[in-house]
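dumping this here so i dont lose it again. seq + smiles for 2-acetamido-2-deoxy-beta-D-glucopyranose
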Amino acid sequence: MDVSTAPRPSCPTKTLQKQRLEALSAFYHVIIVCLAPCSTYLLIYLLFTRLWSLTVLYLMWLYLDRDTPSRGGRRWEWLRTWRIWKQQRDYFPIKLVKTAELPPNQNYVLGAHPHGIMSTGLVCNFLTESNNFSRRFPGIQPWIAMLNFFFYLPVFRDYIMAGGLRPVSRASLDFILSQGQLGLAVVIVPGGAHEAMYTAPRQNCLKLLNRKGFVRLALRHGASLVPVYSFGENDVFKTKIFAKGSWLHLSQIICKKFTRFTFCIFWGRSLFMRKSWGLLPLARPITTVVGAPIPVPQLSTPTEEQVDHYHRLYLEALERLFEEHKESCGVPASSHLTFR
Ligand SMILES: *[C@@H]1O[C@H](CO)[C@@H](O)[C@H](O)[C@H]1NC(C)=O
């Protein structure tokens, strides 16, 4: 096993300036996510001012560019190397653990769990080079799949595309894997928004029993399945989970049904005062463990039995990965994964 060995300053040796930089960097991610809808409001607002032509120009651009997210994307490699990501990594801190090689002579579908509130570990380890992803998995190009909805938000869509995100639609993911290129890794969070509703400190509950689309994708392209688990992802925010049957839980389900997106009540600490609440995530370690690939055959139209078979193999491999690494990642021996 090859554990990331970055020299990580332990707390007492961190200067005040370093601590502030780290907190700001961790906060940046939250601001971006929370401000995502604001660009839409701004665009509509400008329409009623003298700057209306800016909105019109942008909408024209949006129209011309409408197929880019699902056809090739538009990644800026330099975004992966921003220094802010390293500060963010040190804040929690976030680690990447590799348990097996991913040879670049084939493609992969990585299932990443749990969703958490913002998938912080996933973003840090796969979308940035702060834990040396490209050096540790040479020849592997990761693409993270995200809810289609976000690719309709003006400006935000350009930002996430630049970061290497692609819509999670079948057309978009089939497009990535049918380019004849090898060494591609499509990263999917099968639990999606539904799993975000299970986020709570020290819980390891996954929405996975009836999530099989990622297995079908892997089978259609003969891409090996790889389980990925981010220990600690559920610990960085406190959350309020609504009781089944309560009207808030019901509104979450209805919201998800119509937009595939849902709201969660979460909070961390304040950026300015350590003791009060705010939206800065809590500094709890996150360790993303990448499992060994599970080879699958290429079947252009897999049957339900074949899908179920590989889905079962995947769940078993994920469970093994969790059990093997949990104690070194601070999870008590008595905790186990639950699948729903
Ligand atoms: C990344 O690689 C560089 C150069 O090999 C090394 O100095 C650095 O410590 C590595 N960082 C991590 C987090 O492994």
